[in-house]
Amino acid sequence: MIEIKNISKTFNRGSADEIVALKNLSLKINEGDFITVVGFNGSGKSTLLNLISGSLIADSGEIIFNGSNVTKLPDYKRSKYISRIFQNPLAGTASELSILENFRLASLRTRSKSLSIGNTKSFRKNVCDKLKTLNMGLENKPEALMGSLSGGQRQALTLLMSVMDESKILLLDEPTAALDPKSAAIVMELAEKIIREGNLTAIMVTHRMKDASNYGNRLIMMREGSIEKDYSESEKKTIIADDLVRWFNI
Amino acid sequence: MEFYLTAIHQGLAFAALGLGIFLSLRILNIPDITTDGSYTSGGIITAWMLVNGWSPVIAVFAAMIAGAIAGIITGTIHTRLKVHPLLAGIIVMTGLYSINLAILGRPNQPLINIDNLLMSPSTNSDHSSIILFVFSVVLIILINAFLKSDMGIALRATGNSESMVKSMGVNPDKMKIIGLGISNSLTALSGSLIVQYQGFGDINMGIGIVISGLGAVMIGDVVLRNAVSRKIYLQLIAVVLGCILFRLILATALNIGIDPNYLKLITAVLVLSIIAFGKIKFTSKA
To answer: What is d(CA A63, CA A115) in angstroms, rounded to the nearest whole number?
Structure first.
């Protein structure tokens, strides 16, 4: 599904504050994998995610999605393959647009945005049906501005939006970091459900060790720009959150 | 009364400019001051074409295309060279001054006894009121429809959250260039209408004109500050009302005998007052 071959990324190359974020990292992600990624700040987790999404372009190496080389493709072209959930709920939604309009844009992720009016009655009904599954009462106010909702609601909506159009890969960058524990639990359950039902290939960076051990079928630990450990499904089952916390304390 | 009617006519002619500034400033979140140049270009091209026997309809289209090109250039400089939009706008506006002068070949051009969209000296008739009104209504309807279309939603989202639109497969740079093109095309339309209304084009007609648009957008905000709904068409109507109110206030100032030489100062103070008024929080009596 995703093949990463020998990618490297250095920030501020040649200057005094040069930072090597990733060194010759290789990773093969199979279709249907749900990988959780943990590691210290500065270990390269976010850089890895940004290189996959195209927000950053690798200095060297290759990234291949389903056989097509996307190494040099900018993020807005890679969104054809990828849905993203950002750490900041504001980053994944447009505040001054209504819920419906946000969903309309999400439903066109892989297609062109033409001059026709797509926010129709039938579209509205379709979105309201989806909103109902959240049990947040949002189906009664689809015209509400995204900016009037809480961070938890916005993150939940971003997840629903991620599967409005054909979706294969989901990238989650600390999706619950800005949320209270209750909202975080709701968002994680929803993420799990969406990934399972859509049979998505997912990569989630997280600092919550519980989430890292509870979710997914693979666990990757990163340190200093490389992958230190890559636990398979069977190995991962034997790991509990405390083991991960211990690893961080070494 | 004649005096105030003229102010309303001018306000309606400036509606396109106000809506253009609304698009760049409020929708795209880009402070664009290409305006001074694209407004003059619209006016100058119209004056030159009318004098040279072109039909007023074609002159208006040509003016709008020229404005769109100016906006596209500003947008391209801003996005491709990563230049601050204010600086990109100043660069284009400065360059346009010479181009405008070259087009007209002289600093100003009176349009005596030439029929145009608003009035026909040949039949001694004046349709300014109805045509300017229809123009404003049609603009509100068209811009509202555009902003509700799929592309319009993408454009509005661009001014909100670039990370969001990129993750939705939209190139924000392209949206900004399209938006600034439309915005300056509208600005040039105002320039064209004003030249036809006042009967002459002048190379300096655009100096400081951007503030008329800013003032109109801000009056629009004040008009809607307590409104329950902020639907797009209401915001567009508020901007057009803002354009008319802005001209009426200036006309009143002149009418009570303020020296016209102080007009720009009054304009500046007026816009500052509107901004200050918008910041005041009224405590509710309830």
So the answer is: 34
